[in-house]
Amino acid sequence: MPEKTIPQPLYHKYLEGGGEMGERIRTFDWSATTLGTPDTWPQSLLLTVSTMLRSRFPMFLFWGRHHIQFYNDAYRPSLGASGKHPSALGRSGKESWQEIWSAVEPQIERSLHGESTYSENELVPMFRDGKIDEVYWTYSYSPVITEDGTSGGALVICHETTTNVKALKTIDETATQLQFAIEAAELGTWELDPKTNRFVANKRVADWFGLPHTPEIALSSAIEAIVPEDRERVSNAIVDTMKAGSDGNYDISYTVNSLQSGERRVVRAKGKVIFDQGGEATRFSGTLQDITDDVEIEKRKDEFISVASHELKTPITSLNASLQILQKLVKTEPVSDKFKTFTAKAGNNLNKLVHLLDDLLNVTKIQQGQLALSKNRFNLSELVRDSCDHISQGSDHEISINGTDELFVYADYRRIDQVLVNFVGNAIKYSPQSKKIDITLEQVGSDARVIVKDYGIGINPEKLPHLFDRYYRVDALGHQFSGLGLGLYISSDIIKRHDGNIGVESQWGEGSQFWFTLPID
Ligand code: ADP
Q1: Ligand 1 center to residue 473 CA distance, Å?
Q2: CB distance 457 to ligand 1 below 6 Å
Q3: Beta bridge partners of 318
Protein backbone atom coordinates (compact mmCIF):
# COMPACT_ATOMS: atom_id res chain seq x y z
CA MET A 1 0.00 0.00 0.00
CA PRO A 2 1.80 3.16 -1.14
CA GLU A 3 1.52 5.57 1.73
CA LYS A 4 2.23 9.21 1.32
CA THR A 5 4.45 10.72 4.00
CA ILE A 6 3.32 14.10 5.25
CA PRO A 7 6.21 16.54 4.95
CA GLN A 8 7.56 17.90 8.25
CA PRO A 9 6.34 19.85 10.15
CA LEU A 10 2.78 19.46 8.72
CA TYR A 11 1.97 16.21 10.56
CA HIS A 12 2.49 18.07 13.87
CA LYS A 13 -0.58 20.12 13.04
CA TYR A 14 -2.74 16.97 13.11
CA LEU A 15 -1.50 16.00 16.56
CA GLU A 16 -1.98 19.39 18.19
CA GLY A 17 -4.25 19.91 21.25
CA GLY A 18 -6.19 17.02 22.77
CA GLY A 19 -5.30 17.55 26.45
CA GLU A 20 -3.64 14.67 28.27
CA MET A 21 -4.05 12.16 25.42
CA GLY A 22 -2.73 14.68 22.87
CA GLU A 23 0.39 15.08 24.99
CA ARG A 24 0.78 11.32 25.42
CA ILE A 25 0.34 10.67 21.67
CA ARG A 26 2.91 13.33 20.79
CA THR A 27 5.51 12.01 23.23
CA PHE A 28 4.86 8.28 22.71
CA ASP A 29 7.72 6.23 21.21
CA TRP A 30 5.87 5.15 18.06
CA SER A 31 9.08 3.84 16.47
CA ALA A 32 8.77 0.79 18.75
CA THR A 33 5.36 -0.08 17.19
CA THR A 34 4.43 -1.43 13.79
CA LEU A 35 3.10 2.04 12.91
CA GLY A 36 6.47 3.76 13.02
CA THR A 37 6.91 7.47 13.78
CA PRO A 38 3.99 9.87 13.03
CA ASP A 39 5.83 11.49 10.11
CA THR A 40 5.37 8.18 8.26
CA TRP A 41 1.66 7.78 9.11
CA PRO A 42 -0.89 7.93 6.33
CA GLN A 43 -2.98 11.05 6.21
CA SER A 44 -6.15 9.03 6.95
CA LEU A 45 -4.67 7.95 10.30
CA LEU A 46 -3.46 11.45 11.11
CA LEU A 47 -6.83 12.91 10.21
CA THR A 48 -8.70 10.38 12.33
CA VAL A 49 -6.39 10.91 15.33
CA SER A 50 -6.71 14.67 14.90
CA THR A 51 -10.54 14.39 14.82
CA MET A 52 -10.43 12.28 17.98
CA LEU A 53 -8.16 14.68 19.82
CA ARG A 54 -10.39 17.62 18.99
CA SER A 55 -13.64 15.83 19.83
CA ARG A 56 -15.33 16.13 23.22
CA PHE A 57 -17.17 12.86 22.56
CA PRO A 58 -15.48 9.61 23.70
CA MET A 59 -13.62 7.89 20.81
CA PHE A 60 -11.31 4.91 20.52
CA LEU A 61 -9.37 3.82 17.43
CA PHE A 62 -7.96 0.40 16.48
CA TRP A 63 -5.52 0.87 13.58
CA GLY A 64 -4.08 -1.65 11.17
CA ARG A 65 -3.75 -5.43 11.28
CA HIS A 66 -2.37 -5.26 14.84
CA HIS A 67 -5.22 -3.12 16.06
CA ILE A 68 -2.91 -0.48 17.53
CA GLN A 69 -4.91 1.69 19.90
CA PHE A 70 -5.60 5.43 20.33
CA TYR A 71 -8.20 7.15 22.52
CA ASN A 72 -9.06 10.66 23.53
CA ASP A 73 -9.51 12.52 26.83
CA ALA A 74 -13.31 12.09 26.67
CA TYR A 75 -12.87 8.31 26.61
CA ARG A 76 -10.18 8.24 29.26
CA PRO A 77 -12.45 8.25 32.44
CA SER A 78 -14.06 5.00 31.31
CA LEU A 79 -10.72 3.23 31.78
CA GLY A 80 -10.94 3.99 35.52
CA ALA A 81 -8.33 5.40 37.89
CA SER A 82 -6.16 2.33 37.47
CA GLY A 83 -6.11 -0.45 34.88
CA LYS A 84 -5.67 0.00 31.14
CA HIS A 85 -4.71 3.67 31.11
CA PRO A 86 -2.19 4.73 29.91
CA SER A 87 -0.80 1.34 28.85
CA ALA A 88 -3.55 0.85 26.21
CA LEU A 89 -2.12 3.68 24.06
CA GLY A 90 -0.02 2.32 21.20
CA ARG A 91 -0.65 -1.25 22.32
CA SER A 92 -2.40 -3.95 20.31
CA GLY A 93 -6.09 -4.48 21.11
CA LYS A 94 -5.61 -8.16 21.86
CA GLU A 95 -3.09 -7.39 24.63
CA SER A 96 -5.28 -4.73 26.22
CA TRP A 97 -8.69 -6.36 26.06
CA GLN A 98 -7.96 -9.99 26.86
CA GLU A 99 -11.08 -10.39 29.03
CA ILE A 100 -13.47 -9.43 26.17
CA TRP A 101 -11.32 -9.90 23.09
CA SER A 102 -13.61 -12.58 21.68
CA ALA A 103 -16.43 -10.00 21.60
CA VAL A 104 -14.33 -7.03 20.46
CA GLU A 105 -12.28 -8.61 17.67
CA PRO A 106 -15.21 -9.55 15.38
CA GLN A 107 -16.48 -5.99 15.50
CA ILE A 108 -13.04 -4.59 14.59
CA GLU A 109 -12.76 -7.13 11.80
CA ARG A 110 -16.14 -6.13 10.40
CA SER A 111 -14.99 -2.50 10.33
CA LEU A 112 -11.74 -3.53 8.66
CA HIS A 113 -13.95 -5.09 5.99
CA GLY A 114 -15.84 -1.84 5.58
CA GLU A 115 -18.90 -2.54 7.76
CA SER A 116 -20.35 -0.52 10.62
CA THR A 117 -21.99 -1.78 13.81
CA TYR A 118 -24.26 -0.10 16.34
CA SER A 119 -25.08 -1.31 19.87
CA GLU A 120 -27.21 0.37 22.51
CA ASN A 121 -26.76 0.04 26.27
CA GLU A 122 -24.68 -3.10 25.73
CA LEU A 123 -22.94 -4.75 28.66
CA VAL A 124 -19.17 -4.76 28.08
CA PRO A 125 -17.49 -6.01 31.28
CA MET A 126 -14.04 -4.49 31.59
CA PHE A 127 -11.10 -4.56 33.95
CA ARG A 128 -10.72 -1.24 35.73
CA ASP A 129 -9.91 -0.04 39.23
CA GLY A 130 -8.58 -3.49 40.16
CA LYS A 131 -11.72 -5.43 39.29
CA ILE A 132 -13.95 -6.57 36.43
CA ASP A 133 -16.63 -3.88 36.23
CA GLU A 134 -20.10 -4.14 34.69
CA VAL A 135 -19.94 -1.35 32.13
CA TYR A 136 -22.69 -0.45 29.69
CA TRP A 137 -22.07 1.32 26.39
CA THR A 138 -23.91 2.73 23.45
CA TYR A 139 -21.38 2.57 20.62
CA SER A 140 -20.71 2.30 16.94
CA TYR A 141 -17.70 0.71 15.19
CA SER A 142 -17.07 2.30 11.80
CA PRO A 143 -14.40 1.73 9.16
CA VAL A 144 -11.74 4.40 8.50
CA ILE A 145 -11.15 4.52 4.76
CA THR A 146 -7.52 5.04 3.79
CA GLU A 147 -5.93 6.57 0.72
CA ASP A 148 -6.22 3.33 -1.27
CA GLY A 149 -9.96 3.00 -0.60
CA THR A 150 -9.73 0.12 1.85
CA SER A 151 -10.46 0.27 5.57
CA GLY A 152 -7.37 0.89 7.68
CA GLY A 153 -8.96 0.79 11.12
CA ALA A 154 -12.05 0.74 13.31
CA LEU A 155 -13.16 4.00 14.89
CA VAL A 156 -15.29 3.44 17.96
CA ILE A 157 -17.53 6.40 18.85
CA CYS A 158 -19.07 5.55 22.12
CA HIS A 159 -20.84 6.74 25.21
CA GLU A 160 -20.75 4.98 28.57
CA THR A 161 -24.34 4.54 29.78
CA THR A 162 -23.66 2.57 32.98
CA THR A 163 -25.23 5.24 35.21
CA ASN A 164 -28.36 5.47 33.03
CA VAL A 165 -28.77 1.71 32.74
CA LYS A 166 -28.33 1.23 36.48
CA ALA A 167 -30.79 4.06 37.19
CA LEU A 168 -33.34 2.44 34.85
CA LYS A 169 -32.79 -0.91 36.57
CA THR A 170 -33.36 0.74 39.96
CA ILE A 171 -36.57 2.33 38.66
CA ASP A 172 -37.69 -1.10 37.37
CA GLU A 173 -36.89 -2.74 40.70
CA THR A 174 -38.65 0.03 42.62
CA ALA A 175 -41.69 -0.30 40.38
CA THR A 176 -41.73 -4.07 41.02
CA GLN A 177 -41.42 -3.54 44.78
CA LEU A 178 -44.20 -0.96 44.66
CA GLN A 179 -46.36 -3.42 42.74
CA PHE A 180 -45.72 -6.09 45.40
CA ALA A 181 -46.60 -3.62 48.17
CA ILE A 182 -49.81 -2.58 46.35
CA GLU A 183 -50.77 -6.24 45.96
CA ALA A 184 -49.91 -7.08 49.57
CA ALA A 185 -51.93 -4.12 50.87
CA GLU A 186 -54.80 -5.01 48.49
CA LEU A 187 -54.89 -1.44 47.25
CA GLY A 188 -56.52 -0.06 44.18
CA THR A 189 -54.52 2.49 42.17
CA TRP A 190 -55.82 5.15 39.79
CA GLU A 191 -54.66 8.11 37.79
CA LEU A 192 -56.94 10.81 36.45
CA ASP A 193 -56.00 13.01 33.50
CA PRO A 194 -57.26 16.46 34.53
CA LYS A 195 -57.43 17.58 30.87
CA THR A 196 -59.53 14.71 29.49
CA ASN A 197 -61.30 13.59 32.70
CA ARG A 198 -60.46 10.01 31.76
CA PHE A 199 -58.73 7.78 34.19
CA VAL A 200 -56.57 4.69 34.30
CA ALA A 201 -57.12 2.26 37.18
CA ASN A 202 -55.78 -1.12 38.14
CA LYS A 203 -57.87 -4.27 37.82
CA ARG A 204 -58.91 -4.15 41.47
CA VAL A 205 -60.53 -0.70 41.11
CA ALA A 206 -62.24 -1.76 37.88
CA ASP A 207 -63.64 -4.83 39.70
CA TRP A 208 -64.84 -2.85 42.71
CA PHE A 209 -66.65 -0.38 40.44
CA GLY A 210 -67.81 -3.13 38.06
CA LEU A 211 -66.15 -1.38 35.11
CA PRO A 212 -64.53 -3.07 32.07
CA HIS A 213 -60.79 -3.78 32.21
CA THR A 214 -60.05 -1.24 29.48
CA PRO A 215 -56.89 0.88 29.57
CA GLU A 216 -58.89 4.09 30.06
CA ILE A 217 -62.23 4.74 31.75
CA ALA A 218 -64.37 7.89 31.61
CA LEU A 219 -64.67 9.50 35.04
CA SER A 220 -68.44 9.78 34.52
CA SER A 221 -68.76 5.94 34.33
CA ALA A 222 -66.89 5.57 37.61
CA ILE A 223 -69.08 8.21 39.27
CA GLU A 224 -72.14 6.16 38.26
CA ALA A 225 -70.91 3.31 40.47
CA ILE A 226 -70.87 5.60 43.53
CA VAL A 227 -74.08 5.46 45.59
CA PRO A 228 -76.32 8.47 44.75
CA GLU A 229 -76.04 10.02 48.23
CA ASP A 230 -72.22 10.23 47.94
CA ARG A 231 -71.91 11.22 44.26
CA GLU A 232 -72.06 14.99 44.57
CA ARG A 233 -69.69 15.03 47.54
CA VAL A 234 -67.09 13.00 45.60
CA SER A 235 -67.47 15.04 42.37
CA ASN A 236 -67.09 18.28 44.34
CA ALA A 237 -64.03 16.96 46.17
CA ILE A 238 -62.37 16.01 42.85
CA VAL A 239 -63.09 19.44 41.34
CA ASP A 240 -61.97 21.30 44.49
CA THR A 241 -58.71 19.33 44.79
CA MET A 242 -57.79 20.15 41.18
CA LYS A 243 -58.59 23.87 41.54
CA ALA A 244 -55.65 26.27 41.42
CA GLY A 245 -54.68 27.23 44.95
CA SER A 246 -55.71 23.88 46.49
CA ASP A 247 -53.04 22.03 48.45
CA GLY A 248 -53.61 19.12 46.04
CA ASN A 249 -54.45 16.60 48.75
CA TYR A 250 -57.48 14.36 48.24
CA ASP A 251 -58.82 12.13 51.00
CA ILE A 252 -62.42 10.97 50.95
CA SER A 253 -64.48 7.93 51.93
CA TYR A 254 -67.58 6.86 50.04
CA THR A 255 -69.66 3.82 49.10
CA VAL A 256 -69.57 2.10 45.72
CA ASN A 257 -72.02 -0.39 44.27
CA SER A 258 -70.39 -2.55 41.59
CA LEU A 259 -72.14 -1.84 38.27
CA GLN A 260 -71.73 -5.54 37.45
CA SER A 261 -72.38 -7.53 40.64
CA GLY A 262 -74.07 -4.87 42.77
CA GLU A 263 -71.59 -5.67 45.57
CA ARG A 264 -71.41 -2.81 48.05
CA ARG A 265 -68.12 -1.53 49.44
CA VAL A 266 -67.01 1.45 51.47
CA VAL A 267 -63.73 2.76 50.07
CA ARG A 268 -61.25 5.41 51.08
CA ALA A 269 -59.63 7.30 48.20
CA LYS A 270 -56.39 9.15 48.81
CA GLY A 271 -54.59 11.10 46.13
CA LYS A 272 -52.41 14.01 45.18
CA VAL A 273 -52.68 16.56 42.37
CA ILE A 274 -49.55 17.85 40.64
CA PHE A 275 -49.84 21.41 39.32
CA ASP A 276 -47.75 23.09 36.63
CA GLN A 277 -46.13 26.49 37.13
CA GLY A 278 -49.30 28.26 36.00
CA GLY A 279 -51.28 26.50 38.75
CA GLU A 280 -52.99 24.17 36.25
CA ALA A 281 -53.55 20.57 37.40
CA THR A 282 -51.47 18.22 35.24
CA ARG A 283 -51.70 14.91 37.10
CA PHE A 284 -53.97 13.45 39.73
CA SER A 285 -53.22 9.99 41.05
CA GLY A 286 -53.75 7.95 44.17
CA THR A 287 -54.92 4.81 45.86
CA LEU A 288 -58.21 3.25 46.87
CA GLN A 289 -58.63 1.10 49.97
CA ASP A 290 -61.54 -1.14 50.88
CA ILE A 291 -62.54 0.01 54.40
CA THR A 292 -65.89 -1.83 54.56
CA ASP A 293 -64.78 -3.99 57.52
CA ASP A 294 -63.28 -1.02 59.40
CA VAL A 295 -66.50 0.97 58.94
CA GLU A 296 -68.51 -2.02 60.18
CA ILE A 297 -66.30 -2.35 63.28
CA GLU A 298 -66.53 1.41 63.89
CA LYS A 299 -70.32 1.18 63.60
CA ARG A 300 -70.45 -1.65 66.13
CA LYS A 301 -68.19 0.33 68.48
CA ASP A 302 -70.50 3.34 68.20
CA GLU A 303 -73.54 1.15 68.83
CA PHE A 304 -71.86 -0.33 71.89
CA ILE A 305 -70.99 3.13 73.24
CA SER A 306 -74.53 4.29 72.57
CA VAL A 307 -76.10 1.32 74.38
CA ALA A 308 -73.57 1.42 77.24
CA SER A 309 -74.00 5.15 77.86
CA HIS A 310 -77.78 4.87 77.82
CA GLU A 311 -77.62 1.92 80.23
CA LEU A 312 -75.31 3.89 82.54
CA LYS A 313 -77.49 6.97 82.45
CA THR A 314 -80.33 5.65 84.67
CA PRO A 315 -78.21 4.36 87.59
CA ILE A 316 -75.92 7.41 87.48
CA THR A 317 -78.89 9.79 87.48
CA SER A 318 -80.43 8.07 90.50
CA LEU A 319 -77.00 7.90 92.21
CA ASN A 320 -76.66 11.62 91.62
CA ALA A 321 -80.10 12.29 93.10
CA SER A 322 -79.28 10.18 96.19
CA LEU A 323 -75.95 11.91 96.65
CA GLN A 324 -77.54 15.33 96.40
CA ILE A 325 -79.93 14.33 99.22
CA LEU A 326 -76.95 13.09 101.23
CA GLN A 327 -75.09 16.37 100.63
CA LYS A 328 -78.09 18.31 101.94
CA LEU A 329 -78.34 16.03 104.99
CA VAL A 330 -74.66 16.48 105.74
CA LYS A 331 -75.32 20.19 106.14
CA THR A 332 -78.27 19.78 108.51
CA GLU A 333 -77.65 16.52 110.39
CA PRO A 334 -74.98 15.98 113.03
CA VAL A 335 -72.41 13.80 111.21
CA SER A 336 -68.71 13.17 111.68
CA ASP A 337 -66.09 15.16 109.68
CA LYS A 338 -65.02 11.97 107.91
CA PHE A 339 -68.57 11.51 106.69
CA LYS A 340 -68.56 15.07 105.32
CA THR A 341 -65.19 14.60 103.58
CA PHE A 342 -66.18 11.38 101.89
CA THR A 343 -69.55 12.73 100.81
CA ALA A 344 -67.79 15.72 99.19
CA LYS A 345 -65.28 13.41 97.45
CA ALA A 346 -68.08 11.17 96.19
CA GLY A 347 -69.84 14.30 94.89
CA ASN A 348 -66.74 15.48 92.98
CA ASN A 349 -66.12 12.11 91.40
CA LEU A 350 -69.75 11.65 90.49
CA ASN A 351 -69.62 15.07 88.79
CA LYS A 352 -66.70 13.91 86.65
CA LEU A 353 -68.57 10.73 85.82
CA VAL A 354 -71.65 12.73 84.81
CA HIS A 355 -69.50 14.88 82.49
CA LEU A 356 -67.88 11.87 80.85
CA LEU A 357 -71.27 10.26 80.38
CA ASP A 358 -72.65 13.51 78.95
CA ASP A 359 -69.87 13.53 76.35
CA LEU A 360 -70.65 9.94 75.37
CA LEU A 361 -74.36 10.70 75.11
CA ASN A 362 -73.64 13.83 73.05
CA VAL A 363 -71.54 11.84 70.59
CA THR A 364 -74.34 9.35 70.16
CA LYS A 365 -76.74 12.22 69.54
CA ILE A 366 -74.39 13.82 66.98
CA GLN A 367 -74.13 10.55 65.13
CA GLN A 368 -77.81 9.99 65.07
CA GLY A 369 -78.34 13.61 64.01
CA GLN A 370 -80.26 14.26 67.23
CA LEU A 371 -78.20 16.99 68.84
CA ALA A 372 -80.98 19.55 68.86
CA LEU A 373 -80.21 23.28 68.94
CA SER A 374 -82.43 25.78 70.65
CA LYS A 375 -81.40 29.22 69.42
CA ASN A 376 -81.87 32.67 70.95
CA ARG A 377 -80.29 36.07 70.50
CA PHE A 378 -77.77 36.84 73.26
CA ASN A 379 -74.59 38.75 73.96
CA LEU A 380 -71.66 36.38 73.54
CA SER A 381 -69.48 38.60 75.78
CA GLU A 382 -71.94 38.09 78.63
CA LEU A 383 -71.92 34.35 78.14
CA VAL A 384 -68.12 34.34 78.30
CA ARG A 385 -68.07 36.44 81.51
CA ASP A 386 -70.76 34.37 83.26
CA SER A 387 -69.18 31.13 82.26
CA CYS A 388 -65.70 32.19 83.35
CA ASP A 389 -66.99 33.51 86.73
CA HIS A 390 -68.39 30.08 87.30
CA ILE A 391 -65.23 28.22 86.22
CA SER A 392 -62.95 30.55 88.24
CA GLN A 393 -64.69 29.59 91.47
CA GLY A 394 -63.47 26.02 91.28
CA SER A 395 -59.99 26.72 89.90
CA ASP A 396 -56.81 28.49 90.95
CA HIS A 397 -56.16 29.65 87.36
CA GLU A 398 -56.31 33.35 86.64
CA ILE A 399 -58.64 33.97 83.69
CA SER A 400 -58.53 37.41 82.08
CA ILE A 401 -61.10 38.51 79.51
CA ASN A 402 -60.35 41.25 76.98
CA GLY A 403 -62.01 42.75 73.97
CA THR A 404 -65.40 43.74 72.67
CA ASP A 405 -68.24 43.99 75.20
CA GLU A 406 -71.14 43.60 72.82
CA LEU A 407 -71.17 40.77 70.36
CA PHE A 408 -74.71 39.59 69.70
CA VAL A 409 -75.22 36.18 68.16
CA TYR A 410 -78.21 34.00 67.40
CA ALA A 411 -77.23 30.66 68.87
CA ASP A 412 -77.90 27.91 71.38
CA TYR A 413 -76.69 29.46 74.65
CA ARG A 414 -76.24 26.14 76.45
CA ARG A 415 -74.29 24.55 73.58
CA ILE A 416 -71.99 27.54 73.05
CA ASP A 417 -71.38 27.57 76.81
CA GLN A 418 -70.49 23.89 76.49
CA VAL A 419 -67.86 24.75 73.83
CA LEU A 420 -66.38 27.52 75.97
CA VAL A 421 -66.33 25.33 79.09
CA ASN A 422 -64.51 22.67 77.07
CA PHE A 423 -61.90 25.16 75.77
CA VAL A 424 -61.30 26.69 79.19
CA GLY A 425 -61.42 23.29 80.91
CA ASN A 426 -58.74 22.02 78.51
CA ALA A 427 -56.68 25.21 78.98
CA ILE A 428 -56.69 24.51 82.74
CA LYS A 429 -56.13 20.76 82.39
CA TYR A 430 -53.22 21.04 79.93
CA SER A 431 -51.42 23.88 81.78
CA PRO A 432 -50.29 22.27 85.02
CA GLN A 433 -47.31 24.62 85.34
CA SER A 434 -48.89 27.90 84.29
CA LYS A 435 -51.86 29.57 85.94
CA LYS A 436 -52.69 32.16 83.30
CA ILE A 437 -55.46 32.00 80.71
CA ASP A 438 -56.32 34.86 78.34
CA ILE A 439 -59.68 35.09 76.63
CA THR A 440 -60.18 37.54 73.80
CA LEU A 441 -63.49 38.56 72.26
CA GLU A 442 -63.38 40.32 68.92
CA GLN A 443 -65.30 41.08 65.78
CA VAL A 444 -63.72 39.79 62.58
CA GLY A 445 -65.71 40.94 59.56
CA SER A 446 -69.25 39.74 60.13
CA ASP A 447 -68.17 37.15 62.72
CA ALA A 448 -67.65 37.18 66.46
CA ARG A 449 -64.49 35.40 67.51
CA VAL A 450 -63.58 33.98 70.91
CA ILE A 451 -59.96 33.01 71.53
CA VAL A 452 -58.85 31.01 74.56
CA LYS A 453 -55.10 31.16 75.05
CA ASP A 454 -53.12 29.14 77.54
CA TYR A 455 -49.41 28.89 78.34
CA GLY A 456 -49.37 25.16 78.98
CA ILE A 457 -47.86 22.06 77.37
CA GLY A 458 -48.88 23.00 73.82
CA ILE A 459 -49.37 20.59 70.93
CA ASN A 460 -47.03 19.28 68.27
CA PRO A 461 -48.19 21.02 65.01
CA GLU A 462 -48.23 17.61 63.24
CA LYS A 463 -51.09 16.53 65.50
CA LEU A 464 -53.25 19.62 64.96
CA PRO A 465 -55.16 18.34 61.89
CA HIS A 466 -56.58 15.44 63.93
CA LEU A 467 -57.47 17.34 67.06
CA PHE A 468 -61.17 17.68 66.27
CA ASP A 469 -61.55 14.00 65.32
CA ARG A 470 -63.64 11.68 67.43
CA TYR A 471 -61.72 9.93 70.27
CA TYR A 472 -58.48 11.70 69.28
CA ARG A 473 -56.06 12.40 72.10
CA VAL A 474 -52.53 13.69 71.46
CA ASP A 475 -51.05 11.41 74.08
CA ALA A 476 -53.51 8.57 73.59
CA LEU A 477 -51.84 6.12 75.96
CA GLY A 478 -50.46 8.61 78.48
CA HIS A 479 -52.36 8.71 81.73
CA GLN A 480 -51.11 12.09 82.83
CA PHE A 481 -54.35 13.79 81.78
CA SER A 482 -57.74 12.11 81.93
CA GLY A 483 -60.26 12.42 79.09
CA LEU A 484 -62.03 10.62 76.28
CA GLY A 485 -60.96 12.76 73.33
CA LEU A 486 -64.55 13.83 72.66
CA GLY A 487 -64.81 17.42 73.89
CA LEU A 488 -63.30 19.05 70.80
CA TYR A 489 -65.18 16.73 68.45
CA ILE A 490 -68.47 17.77 70.07
CA SER A 491 -67.41 21.45 70.10
CA SER A 492 -66.53 21.29 66.42
CA ASP A 493 -69.93 19.80 65.55
CA ILE A 494 -71.77 22.43 67.61
CA ILE A 495 -69.86 25.33 66.01
CA LYS A 496 -70.24 23.98 62.46
CA ARG A 497 -73.95 23.58 62.98
CA HIS A 498 -74.03 27.29 63.85
CA ASP A 499 -72.25 28.10 60.52
CA GLY A 500 -69.14 29.06 62.48
CA ASN A 501 -65.54 27.98 62.34
CA ILE A 502 -63.29 26.39 64.91
CA GLY A 503 -59.51 26.10 65.00
CA VAL A 504 -56.30 26.01 66.95
CA GLU A 505 -52.74 27.32 66.77
CA SER A 506 -50.13 25.74 68.97
CA GLN A 507 -46.49 24.79 69.36
CA TRP A 508 -45.20 22.00 71.53
CA GLY A 509 -44.17 23.47 74.92
CA GLU A 510 -45.47 26.94 74.10
CA GLY A 511 -49.14 26.81 74.97
CA SER A 512 -52.18 26.73 72.70
CA GLN A 513 -54.71 29.11 71.29
CA PHE A 514 -58.15 27.63 70.56
CA TRP A 515 -60.75 29.79 68.81
CA PHE A 516 -64.22 29.66 67.39
CA THR A 517 -66.34 32.09 65.39
CA LEU A 518 -70.07 32.62 65.13
CA PRO A 519 -71.95 34.86 62.69
CA ILE A 520 -72.93 38.16 64.32
CA ASP A 521 -76.67 38.66 64.51
P1 ADP B 1 -59.90 15.29 76.16
O2 ADP B 1 -61.06 14.78 76.92
O3 ADP B 1 -58.90 14.22 75.88
O4 ADP B 1 -59.29 16.52 76.73
P5 ADP B 1 -60.64 16.92 73.85
O6 ADP B 1 -61.42 16.52 72.65
O7 ADP B 1 -61.16 18.08 74.62
O8 ADP B 1 -60.52 15.61 74.72
O9 ADP B 1 -59.17 17.22 73.39
C10 ADP B 1 -58.53 16.33 72.49
C11 ADP B 1 -57.03 16.33 72.72
O12 ADP B 1 -56.50 17.59 72.34
C13 ADP B 1 -56.63 16.17 74.17
O14 ADP B 1 -56.53 14.82 74.52
C15 ADP B 1 -55.29 16.86 74.22
O16 ADP B 1 -54.30 15.96 73.81
C17 ADP B 1 -55.41 17.95 73.17
N18 ADP B 1 -55.72 19.28 73.75
C19 ADP B 1 -56.92 19.86 73.82
N20 ADP B 1 -56.80 21.09 74.38
C21 ADP B 1 -55.50 21.27 74.67
C22 ADP B 1 -54.73 22.34 75.24
N23 ADP B 1 -55.32 23.49 75.64
N24 ADP B 1 -53.40 22.16 75.36
C25 ADP B 1 -52.80 21.04 74.96
N26 ADP B 1 -53.46 19.99 74.40
C27 ADP B 1 -54.80 20.11 74.26
Answers
A1: 6
A2: yes
A3: none
